[in-house]
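Quick check before the chapter quiz. The format below is the same one you will see on the exam, so make sure you can read both the input and the output lines.
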Amino acid sequence: MTQKTTLLAGDIGGTKTLLGLYEADGGRLGLQHKERYRSGDYPRLADIVQKFLKDRKMKHAPRSACFGIAGPCQGGVCVTRNLPWVVNAEELQQDIGFEKVFLINDFESIVYGIPHLSPSDLDTLKTGVKDPVGNIAVIGAGTGLGEGFAMYDPSLKRYRVYPSEGGHTDFAPKNDEEVALLEYLRRQYGHVSYERVISGTGLINIYSFLTAGGMDEAAAELDAEIRQSSDPAAAISEYATSGRSEMCRRALAIFASVYGSEAGNLALKILPAGGVYLAGGIAAKIREFLHEGVFVASFLNKGRSRGLLENLPVSIILNPDVGLIGAAGKCLDEGAR
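Here is the expected output.
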């Protein structure tokens, strides 16, 4: 008879933090409770975890916990990219009372979660031939731009998952308009990474670039609405997909094109015969627009290397809890070793 254990999983992003309490029964995970928090409302991750446990009226912390965090994690320490946090596994373990705490990059946790997804959790953007033990690549735009990948280890009969900070590599324009965009952003930021273009802030950057040359009265009225919105990136996407603004639609087209280009760059480096997966909050929200073809055309636009990408399947992850599921799976795997 297997012993049931309770574990805590977390998906920590620059905008939101998801915590989930899971019951592990053998190799199966059952979600007991999930809560969402605004990351920026708390000075430390420990404060969110303590509130979560207190609200559940738990006198003792679960035995182990795993947190997927948006930022590089090395030696049990993770410095978040879009929050003023430094998360230390040892300190968190002592503060909360865990026996074990694992910190991994948020895109590592997403990759760990992919095997747990059902077909309804995915939207096929580009068909292809999937190798069940082929490499896997994940890229996702949200508050920032994350990337990760996995390679199958036949000796272990499972995937090895690897983090990446590829979203911070140099943005490489591929046409005159994108060259002008690069020059515009370089004047503001100096170094221009892909994250400056492929993220919520990136979409705003593209829109600002397009409107910098002026606009007519009707466009100016919409611009005022966008600037006053609590979420300008979402407003740009909405005006683009609803047809209210041609300028917003152009911004979203550039966004999708650069997104597809960087996804193709990642695919050339990893050769993911197991599939390319788009994570993050943005892809799922604009998936109808992505299906119009700009993304895939840019993904394949690799000159003589196009043939290496033509048979790769590309899917949008629709399940927003994939990172949470993956963190729980990682925690379970570590506990079983």
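If your answer matched, good. The two ends are 18 Å apart (CA to CA).
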